[in-house]
Each structure stands twice: as structure tokens, then as C-alpha cells.
Backbone:
């Protein structure tokens, strides 16, 4: 089955700096890659996603890149703000919609 | 904005007791999922449900677990005889058949 790895497990950045989180996946059949933000005591919230026929997607300060050949995908947050502090999960899904498999998460701290 | 609603938010039970966790999906969604998250760990897939039957389940989802949609609206997860290791946050997620999953705020289950 699919296995998603994620690095780093923790990340601290100064406010205004950029943050990058990297993930790898194992199943070449996966073709949808969402990113979720989880704040304390809440459920995961979808922040951006990318499909395998696209190499890059951007939404304001957040961007995601995908290298399907290498099975790598990354989240880039620019101009970080304290409210970006949370746990971020990458994930992968196959075409059947049967399940989304999560990475282990990255705890991001933005220091004012 | 429509959201997935889960009840109760917290559930405390004695080992060996049955618990039922409830979820109200977003109204036009057709795919339903349960995930769990043990404190500090990754979000783990339990089961997916479509067209009134299980689509896929993980190794965690053994004979002690069951799901149903008893009245066409609520989506429930039942654990027949809880164990200490069932203590976790349980998340319901729903989708309308595209890839985007929307998560509820979770039920914190504590088994004593």
C-alpha cells in the first residue's frame, strides 16, 4: 500500500521567512496530493492540493510542487506569519477515492 | 460554509464497553471516511464507505469496529468492546466524489 514520508518533523522559522516541507510517496498509482493544516484541538483543514498532471500550484503565500518521476512533493510557505504555526500533513490518494494516506506531519512554529 | 459535524466532542468509557461515534456529513457528499489520530502521531485511515457499503478498510479496522449510515444522514463508527489502545481522536471526513476530503473537528475517545 501507499506510504508517505515527510520531513522535517519540526520546523521553526522567523516571521517573514519561508518554510519548506518535503514529502515522498511510494505508490506510483497515486495521483492526488493534498496538504492539510491542523491547529490544536481541530481537525485537518485542506489548504492546497495538486494533481499528478500538474507540476506546480500556487495560492497566495502557499505553493506546492510535484515531481512525479521522483515521487516527491513539497509545500512552500512564503512570508510566514505567527498564525501559520500548526501541524502540516502531506497526503496521497489513488484514483479510486477509497482513502487518503497521510504523512507523519511537520510541526511548524513561526517566531514573531 | 458547510461543515462536517461530529458528536460527542469527548467520550470517556470503561474498557470493554461499546461506544458509538456520530458524524453528520455535508449534505451532498457521498463518500465517508473514518480516521483516527493517537496523541502526537499521524492521522491513520480506518475505513471508507460509499453507497451503503465499505469500500476499503485498514488493518486497524478489525471485527470490533463497524460503520453504518442508519438513517441516511448520520454516519456512525461503533467500537464493540473498547480497549485501552483505542484511546485516540477519531475524525470523520466526507467528500462529494472528487478528491477533496473535509474533516470534522473530531471525537476524543478516552478508554479507562
Residues:
Amino acid at each position: 500500500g501507499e506510504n508517505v514520508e515527510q520531513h522535517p518533523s519540526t520546523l521553526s522559522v522567523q516571521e517573514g521567512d519561508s518554510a519548506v516541507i518535503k514529502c515522498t510517496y511510494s505508490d506510483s498509482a497515486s495521483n492526488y496530493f493534498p496538504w492539510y493544516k491542523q491547529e490544536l484541538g481541530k481537525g485537518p483543514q485542506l489548504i492546497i492540493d495538486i494533481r499528478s498532471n500538474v507540476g506546480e500550484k500556487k495560492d497566495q503565500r502557499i505553493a506546492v510542487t510535484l515531481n512525479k518521476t521522483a515521487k516527491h512533493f513539497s509545500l512552500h510557505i512564503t512570508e510566514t506569519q505567527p498564525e501559520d504555526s500548526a501541524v502540516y500533513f502531506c497526503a496521497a490518494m489513488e484514483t479510486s477515492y477509497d482513502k487518503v494516506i497521510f504523512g507523519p506531519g511537520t510541526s511548524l512554529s513561526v517566531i514573531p | 460554509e458547510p461543515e462536517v459535524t461530529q458528536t460527542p466532542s469527548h467520550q470517556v468509557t470503561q474498557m470493554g464497553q461499546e461506544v458509538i461515534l456520530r458524524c453528520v456529513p455535508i449534505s451532498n457528499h457521498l463518500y465517508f471516511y473514518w480516521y483516527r489520530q493517537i496523541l502526537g502521531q499521524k492521522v491513520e485511515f480506518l475505513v471508507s464507505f460509499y453507497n451503503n457499503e465499505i469500500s476499503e478498510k485498514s488493518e486497524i479496522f478489525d471485527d470490533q469496529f463497524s460503520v453504518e449510515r442508519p438513517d441516511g444522514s448520520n454516519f456512525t463508527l461503533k467500537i464493540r468492546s473498547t480497549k485501552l489502545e483505542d484511546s485516540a481522536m477519531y475524525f470523520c471526513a466526507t467528500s462529494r466524489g472528487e478528491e477533496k476530503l473535509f474533516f470534522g473537528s473530531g471525537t476524543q475517545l478516552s478508554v479507562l
Summary: The mean pLDDT of chain B is 93. Chain B touches chain A at residues 4, 31, 33, 35, 41-45, 48, 50, 55-56, 58, 91, 93, 95, 97-106 (CB under 8 Å). Chain B is about 0% helix and 50% strand.
